[in-house]
Design a protein that fits this description.
Order of helices and strands of chain B: EHEHEEH
CATH class of the largest domain in chain A: Alpha Beta
CATH topology of chain B: Glutaredoxin
CATH architecture of chain B: 3-Layer(aba) Sandwich
Distance between the termini of chain A: 14 Å
Structural class of chain B: alpha+beta
Number of domains of chain B: 1
Radius of gyration of chain A: 21 Å
CATH superfamily of the largest domain in chain A: FAD/NAD(P)-binding domain
Largest interface: A-B, 26 and 24 residues
CATH architecture of the largest domain in chain A: 3-Layer(bba) Sandwich
Helix content of chain B: 25-40%
Oligomer: heterodimer
Number of helices of chain B: 3
CATH topology of the largest domain in chain A: FAD/NAD(P)-binding domain
Number of strands of chain A: 17
Chain lengths: 302, 84
């Protein structure tokens, strides 16, 4: 039986772990991976004390900092169920179960999925969310990027070093990315931007071969021959494992009070998974600290 | 020591330079003092083809441990294959 189980290993979860260890709480931290969204940030320039650092280096520094403390950790695991009886019961995707007096949810956000046919089948088979990882695999190929925000534009730039032709598909009438980036894309001579289009399906045999989209003003479905599809349509939360124990807003974020309490006593939340308005590394870290201190206060009263 | 013969595993990592999980995977192997062949597929079409043929997909990283293929940085699987 743990005093506290922290779910998540991003800035909120790691900071929570450091605070829990310093309070000598009997703590377990469960995470699928370390760093969360910061891991593929190429540069972080707003973390006090370090002028410039890559997301991966910052993740490693945070992890090392946490490793200085006595704290039990389980990595490579995703929590799939959380319920409350007398205490909190947690089950992970390896079917292991844990019990705790308090729980802190800090699982952040993950890339939003398309929810269209072909998405699951072609993941890793031409469909990707990481252009820095997979762009080199698409040398001289044609690719589509779904989403015309800054993330999509940056992906298009990464791809322009390798791919033959790049289509950027935007759902809205206008792309949302910065003009400066758009100009850079135009200069490559490889990028074509389609706006006001909805992507319907990703098709292929073993690997991606084409993408079906429709113009939102009407007209028939059109098919683009592409060998790669990159998805950049924003982020979402995944809080289904805590269903019934937390209140979600319409964005799917867990609603908390100023001391990180959820609607269930003893259950706390911190970082990007919550309805705290601003999503920044420094804010997630401080929310993780606050939540642990709240859990500590709660445990004292038990 | 679990393996009395202490036979070294042959480990090959297919990766691209800039992918965060490739770096994390290689750091993990180094931390555990595992020797490995580092194959950058970015500019190596033969290696790309080999990786795709063996793993049936095109995402990096891919690790080959004594002929067994692991897609992605799957720590539990890698640990069990390396017996660490």
């Amino acid at each position: 039986m743990y005093d506290l189980i922290i779910i998540g290993g991003g800035p909120a979860g790691i900071t929570a772990g450091i605070y829990a260890a310093r309070k000598k709480l009997n703590t377990l931290l469960i995470t699928k991976e370390w760093g969360g969204q910061i891991i593929d940030a190429s540069e972080v320039e707003n973390w006090p004390g370090t002028q410039k650092i890559s997301g991966l280096d910052l993740t490693n520094q945070m992890k090392e900092h946490l490793n200085n403390f006595e704290l039990e950790k389980k990595e490579g695991r995703e929590v799939i169920n959380l319920e409350k009886k007398e205490n909190f019961l947690i089950r992970d995707d390896k079917k292991e179960e844990y019990e705790a007096k308090t729980v802190l949810i800090a699982t952040g956000k993950i890339p939003r999925s398309l929810d269209i046919p072909g998405e699951k089948e072609f993941k890793g088979k031409g469909l990707s969310i990481c252009s820095t990882c997979d762009a080199p695999m698409l040398k001289d190929k044609d690719v589509a990027i779904i989403g015309g925000g800054n993330v999509g534009f940056n992906m298009a730039l990464d791809l322009s070093k390798y791919a033959n032709k790049i289509y950027v598909l935007e759902f809205l009438e206008k792309t949302q990315g910065d003009e400066l980036l758009k100009e850079k894309l135009e200069k490559t001579g490889k990028v074509e931007i389609y706006t006001n289009v909805a992507v319907k399906e990703i098709k292929g045999s073993q690997f991606v071969e084409s993408l079906v989209y429709e113009n939102r003003d009407g007209g028939e479905n059109k098919e683009l021959k592409v060998q790669g599809v990159f998805v950049a349509i924003g982020m979402m939360t995944k809080a289904g494992f805590a269903e019934g124990l937390v209140e979600l807003n319409k964005e799917g974020e867990i609603m908390i009070d100023k001391d990180n309490n959820t609607k269930t006593q003893g259950l706390f939340a911190a970082g990007d998974i919550t309805d705290v308005k601003y999503e920044q590394i420094v804010i997630a870290a401080s929310e993780g600290a606050k939540a642990t201190l709240s859990a500590h206060d709660y445990l004292k009263k038990l | 020591m679990k393996n009395t013969e202490n036979k070294k595993s042959t480990v090959r990592v297919f990766s691209t330079e800039s992918c965060p999980f490739c770096v994390a995977l290689k750091d993990f192997l180094k931390d555990n003092k595992i020797e490995f062949e580092d194959i950058d597929v970015s500019d190596n079409e033969a290696a790309q083809k080999e990786m795709i043929d063996k793993s049936g997909q095109m995402g990096v990283p891919v690790v080959e441990i004594d002929g067994q293929i692991v897609v992605g940085f799957d720590q539990d699987k890698i640990k069990s294959l390396l017996k660490i």
